[in-house]
Design goal:
- The longest helix has 37 residues.
- The chain has a two-stranded antiparallel ribbon.
- 31% of the residues are buried.
- It contains 14 helices and 2 strands; from the N terminus they run H-H-E-E-H-H-H-H-H-H-H-H-H-H-H-H.
- It is elongated.
- By secondary structure, the chain is mainly alpha-helical.
């Protein structure tokens, strides 16, 4: 077969002629002369960083870097301590560096910071202990208090356990006003005193004098246990607000995340200790569970003894008055391990004062 031109009529087996076909060269598109279009400049495409990392640059410091969760950028690109965080800034990482910029992070784990944070997280240890001290020794406690198995007794025991949450709700609602009024340090010491009182009430529920009627003794013990759980709940709810706030305000910016996790870690440690010590093989049996509940007072007493390590929050002092700002500068210098007149301390204090807003008292010496 070929291409036919002209008016040739070829017979077919169907009894009619083939329509004449136009010449290919007569098609207007093919006969139109070509228009020269200016060729676009070819852009040299850089090989993807991911391709280089897994083929040629296996010994590169970038080889084991985790990808960044940025749309269009599959891996982190760094050059001369410059990091590209988006596709628009990718070329900036490869620009020649005129000089090396040194970023010095001020502040670290000083002795004053570790002591203050370690003393404050004792509240978290008490919170975790009271959160988990009702489960392991429950059978012995219910037997000694006369709360045997039954629908009504089960409801009474459930209320005794859950009143802790009601107290925590009250504590976390009221403590912010207290912390802003008297300061973080005094609030933490007050919380420790409340913990001490609640632990004493819980322990007293197992050592009440024996009256003539066993029912009367059970009622007194249950009321003391209810009161102790409620008081410890108030202290626990207050701890969840004040202690993380205090840790964030005394720590330098680059350590706030690490110190902030200390509260949860210490709380989980308290729950673990409560579950272990409360086993029936240890203190979770009849006659000893009151001692088990009294252990919650040990961290509270330790915190009150170590109160000198608990420095006031410089951020709270910075927003009070000029006199308190001077005190905040001294505390901040101790927490950072810097001289009192250090530029880093002065700059951080200025940032705290700007974040706190206008100083109460009009900027004079009064507060």
């Amino acid at each position: 077969p070929g291409t036919h031109t002209g008016d040739l009529h070829a017979p077919t087996g169907l009894g009619h002629a083939v329509r004449p076909m136009k010449s290919v060269s007569s098609h207007p598109v093919l006969t139109t002369p070509f228009i020269e279009v200016e060729e676009r400049p070819k852009l040299v495409r850089r090989r993807t960083t991911t391709d280089c990392l897994f083929t040629e640059l296996t010994h590169s410091p970038l080889h084991d870097l985790a990808p960044v969760a940025t749309l269009g950028l599959t891996t982190r690109v760094t050059h001369s301590n410059s990091v590209a965080v988006s596709l628009d800034q990718l070329g900036l990482a490869f620009e020649p560096q005129r000089d090396s910029t040194l970023i010095l992070v001020q502040g670290g784990y000083t002795a004053a910071l570790v002591k203050a944070a370690g003393t404050a997280v004792l509240c978290a240890l008490m919170y975790g202990f009271h959160l988990g001290n009702m489960n392991p020794a429950a059978p012995a406690m219910r037997a000694d208090l006369g709360i045997e198995a039954g629908v009504e007794n089960d409801n009474a025991w459930a209320f005794c356990v859950s009143i802790f949450c009601l107290g925590a709700l009250l504590g976390c609602s009221l403590v912010p006003m207290v912390a802003d009024s008297i300061g973080r340090r005094k609030t933490i010491l007050l919380i420790s005193t409340v913990y001490l009182l609640g632990s004493a009430l819980e322990a007293a529920s197992g050592v009440v004098p024996r009256p003539a009627s066993p029912l009367e003794r059970s009622s007194i013990g249950l009321c003391l246990l209810l009161a102790g759980r409620a008081v410890c709940g108030v202290a626990s709810g207050s701890s969840t607000v004040v202690v993380p706030m205090y840790l964030g305000e005394i720590s330098p910016p680059h350590l706030r995340g690490a110190l902030g996790t200390c509260f949860q870690l210490t709380c989980c440690t308290g729950i673990l200790l409560a579950q272990i010590v409360g086993l029936p093989a240890l203190l979770g049996r009849s006659g000893l569970w009151s001692v088990y509940l009294a252990l919650g007072a040990l961290p509270a007493a330790s915190l009150l003894v170590l109160h000198s390590f608990l420095l006031e929050s410089p951020r709270w002092l910075a927003g009070r008055s000029d006199a308190e700002a001077i005190r905040a500068q001294a505390i901040l210098a101790a927490l950072r391990g810097e001289p009192l007149s250090s530029l880093a301390v002065v700059q951080e204090l200025d940032l705290m004062q700007m974040a706190a807003g206008p100083i109460a008292g009009g900027g004079g010496d009064g507060g």
